[in-house]
Amino acid sequence: MRIAILGAHMVGKTTLAEKLYESFPDYEFYPEPYFELQEMGFDFSEIPTADDYMAQLEHSIKQIMRSNRNAIFDRCPIDLLAYALAVDDNLNFSSIFNRIQNAIKEIDVFVFVPVEKPDRILCSDSDLPELRDEVNNIIGELILDFDLEVIEVKGSLSERLNQIQSKTQQFLAK
């Protein structure tokens, strides 16, 4: 199955994705598109722009389309679209809407890691907490807009892993 972990920054998403990968060693792991693009020489703006996020979104679509059936993605087009919309509320993404929809159809399990109250991870001012909160809210809206069935995880890392493993067992039993 293909599993996508989505959420804003500083919520424990990457740690969760990496631990989940340890639980599924025969899976491929796809890091955040940002890191792959950076390694390929993509020059991101110091303050991220909608274009930066759209480049990551395009890369995320490519990751999904070239992946094997057993894959874990640290980010997917949904959260990258949320970032692009958060920094540019006039963003017109209609030109790639169908590509986003086709890519996310390939994902079997979406795991949403929301910002929790009280906050589990300190988000300092330099980590842009307002952007994180806005992205978190937009992801919630996009989940509804795209009619996604998600596993929303909360709690400690082990609690989050248990929530995912219990749901994925149900998926595998189908």
Question: Can you offer a commentary on this structure?
Answer:
The structure is a single chain. Strands 2-3-1-4-5 form a 5-stranded parallel sheet, with helices on one face. The chain has 174 residues and is α/β, with parallel strands linked by helices. Helix 3 runs antiparallel to helix 4 and helix 4 crosses helix 6. The relative contact order is 0.21. The N and C termini lie close together (12 Å). It is globular.
Keywords:
single chain, 174 residues, alpha/beta, five-stranded parallel beta sheet, 7 helices, 5 strands
Radius of gyration: 15 Å
Straight-line distance between termini = 12 Å
Number of distinct beta strands: 5
| Class by alpha and beta content | alpha/beta
- The strands making up the biggest β-sheet line up spatially as 2-3-1-4-5
**Helix share, percent:** 40-55%
Q: Give me the number of helical elements.
A: 7
Shape: globular
Low-pLDDT residue spans: none
DSSP strand content: 5-15%
Mind summarizing the main beta sheet? 5 strands, parallel
